[in-house]
Design goal:
Helix 12 links the parallel strand 8 and strand 9. Helix content is 52%, strand content 17%. The mean pLDDT is 89. The chain has a six-stranded antiparallel sheet. By secondary structure, it is α/β, with parallel strands linked by helices. The chain has three domains: 206 residues, Four Helix Bundle (Hemerythrin (Met), subunit A); 89 residues, Translation factors (Elongation Factor Tu (Ef-tu), domain 3, Beta Barrel), CATH 2.40.30.10; 121 residues, 3-Layer(aba) Sandwich (Rossmann fold). The protein contains 15 helices and eleven strands. Helix 2 runs antiparallel to helix 8, helix 4 crosses helix 6 and helix 6 packs antiparallel against helix 8. The site of flavin-adenine dinucleotide has 25 residues, from strand 4, strand 5 and helix 10.
Length: 434
């Protein structure tokens, strides 16, 4: 199935699931619940709550890292973008839920409206208030604070608890309007959503770790130069199967390192027995890699991602890398066959920073259809689309694969689109999941 068809189908199914409570309401409710102002805002309040919970449950499903979900959205990095987008949307719907419920007391009874949002002797309602403030706090941390990744991840895991509290709220409070009209359909649906959400959350929290136990590797070689580590790993048992350009989650077993798994692109060619990653020091974890030793155990989860030149229709491609974004291109360049015509632009600040230059030069020598263009921004100024057009002769009928810093990706993508390149011909790997 075509990539765009899969994406279209995926989004259609998502929207259908999200809108199911609305359909149920109108199918089984016969339009009741919307006869006067008070009923209408109340019904809308309940519907917003249920739609919000559905989207909330879907965000958990998206973070399970199940392979067919990646297929639908075109890679795990894209899945996490949709996850973030839906997380924000769930919050808006969940916020609208109490707002619409109290609207029915306004303008007549402001004190009653205000008291509706405060704790009372109704525990079923109190649970809703706790869940609301819980999700607000946790999403605020995600969107507006810059705490360290592992601390953020720890806070993010409390969303499962918040979801569970919200499930208790739904079942104990029993929507008054919906109760009479569509009691069965409404609660069957709420039960399905709750079970799926809780299953997906538990899967991510507990079962995903088990997957890492299946692929145990050992460090074969480490090269540490300036702020970059090249780490080669060999399998203890069966090697994993992967395509160049994909990435893996890696957990190193070394007493001086955290056991938190981190994502890194594979820089070796498809299905090599030995897997190589190249890591640039960025924060605490990547700096602590200097303690790694040959022989240390490693567990690998993956591969993930769909960033591979064979996945796109044009065989004439321009690859654009900045900084550590060169890593997935190294393995892809090794895999190239002569039917592909590739120009690889690689931007670094200065010559000392280049990674994998000699490998890429060697590939250029043996493959006349592969052109390697290292670009130092200190000497050659910024790389832009006009320079690309000049050096690659044309940008028409080509695919563009981009990996690098967010600024570089945004700038180049904007310029390409301004020059008439279709968005569907631009593919990027995002080195950030948060
Ligand atoms: C798909 C993908 C491929 C990547 N490939 C490479 C690569 O080939 N080489 C390379 O040097 N870097 C790569 N990265 C980035 C690398 O994962 C981060 O630089 C590294 O995890 C930073 O950890 P830190 O604790 O040193 O830095 P911190 O300062 O703690 O984190 C910096 C940023 O890295 C991200 N990050 C941190 N920890 C994790 C984690 N456990 N899981 C997910 N993201 C995290 C967060 O966005 C965070 O804001 C890749 C990232 C992704 C998402």
């Amino acid at each position: 199935m075509q990539k765009n068809t899969k994406k279209f189908l995926g989004w259609s199914v998502l929207i259908l699931i999200i809108l199911t409570p609305v359909l149920l309401w109108f199918l089984f409710g016969d339009g009741d619940g919307f006869t006067n102002y008070a009923d209408t805002v109340h019904s809308l309040g309940e519907l917003f709550g249920l739609v919000g919970m559905t989207i909330f449950a879907i965000t958990f499903v998206l973070s399970t890292r199940i392979s067919w979900i990646e297929d639908v959205f075109g890679g795990l990095d894209k899945v996490y973008i949709v996850h973030g987008l839906l997380g924000g949307t769930a919050l808006l719907f969940i916020l609208a839920h109490p707002i619409f419920l109290v609207l029915k007391f306004i303008p007549g009874n402001f004190p009653l409206a205000a008291s509706y949002l405060l704790p009372s002797s109704y525990w079923s309602v109190n649970l809703g208030i706790i869940a609301l403030f819980g999700i607000l706090g946790l999403i605020y941390i995600t969107l507006y604070t810059k705490i360290k990744y592992h601390k953020w991840k720890f806070t993010h895991e409390f969303l499962g608890l918040v979801f569970l509290i919200a499930v208790f709220h739904i079942f104990l409070v029993r929507g008054t309007v919906s109760q009479g009209i569509i009691f069965h359909g409404y609660y069957v649906y709420a039960t399905i959503v709750s079970v799926i959400g809780l299953w997906a959350f538990s899967y991510s929290l507990f079962l995903k770790n088990r997957k890492m136990k299946n692929a145990i590797y050992k460090i074969k070689n480490i090269i540490h130069k300036d702020d970059v580590f090249e780490i080669e790993m060999m399998p203890e048992h069966k090697p994993i199967e992967y395509h160049s350009g994909q990435f893996i989650f890696v957990r190193f077993y070394n007493e001086k390192l955290s056991e938190e798994p981190h994502p890194f692109s594979i820089s070796s060619k498809s299905n090599s027995e030995f897997i190589k990653i190249v890591v640039r020091k960025l924060g605490d974890f990547t700096s602590s890699l200097e303690h790694l030793k040959v022989g240390d155990k490693v567990s690998i989860e993956g591969p993930y991602g769909r960033f591979n030149f064979k996945n796109y229709s044009h065989k004439n491609q321009i690859w654009l890398a900045s900084g550590i974004g060169i890593v997935p291109f190294i393995g892809m360049a090794e895999d190239l066959s002569s039917e592909f015509q590739i120009d690889l632009y690689y931007v670094e600040k200065n010559e000392n920073k280049f990674i994998g230059n000699s490998t890429l030069r060697e590939i250029e020598k043996r493959n006349k259809n592969f052109k390697f263009i290292p670009w130092t921004s200190e000497k050659m100024n910024r790389l832009d689309v006009h320079k690309i057009k000049k050096l690659s002769r044309t940008i028409e009928n080509k695919e563009f694969l981009i990996c690098g810093s967010p600024g570089f990706k945004e700038e180049i993508t904007k310029q390409l689109i301004n020059e008439g390149v279709k968005k569907s011909n631009i593919h990027e790997e995002v080195f950030d999941f948060r």
